[in-house]
Amino acid sequence: MQVSARNQLAGTVKEIKQDDIMAEVTLQLADGVELVAVITASSAQRLNISVGSQVYVIVKSTDVMIGAD
């Protein structure tokens, strides 16, 4: 798989909560951090992911917001 995004994180699917429309996918990243992503149910099916699947999180820098107190 080749993508132009530079912000890629490898992880393992830890849990999937899915209904007819959306899927909430909990990932365990290599450093022990958990990340939750919400994708469409059709995307989850198309990707054929299940608990234990090795996946990549791809983050576009323009989609990240940073805040400070």
Can you walk me through this structure?
With 69 residues, the protein is mostly beta strands. It has one domain (1-49): RNA polymerase II/Efflux pump adaptor protein, barrel-sandwich hybrid domain (OB fold (Dihydrolipoamide Acetyltransferase, E2P)). It has one helix and four strands. The protein has one helix at residues 41-47, and strands at residues 7-18, 22-29, 34-40, 54-59. It has a four-stranded antiparallel beta sheet. β2 and β3 form a beta hairpin. The protein is globular and about 35 Å long.
Nutshell version of this structure?
With 69 residues, this protein is mainly β.
Order of helices and strands: EEEHE
* Strand runs, count: 4
CATH class division: Mainly Beta
CATH superfamily grouping: RNA polymerase II/Efflux pump adaptor protein, barrel-sandwich hybrid domain
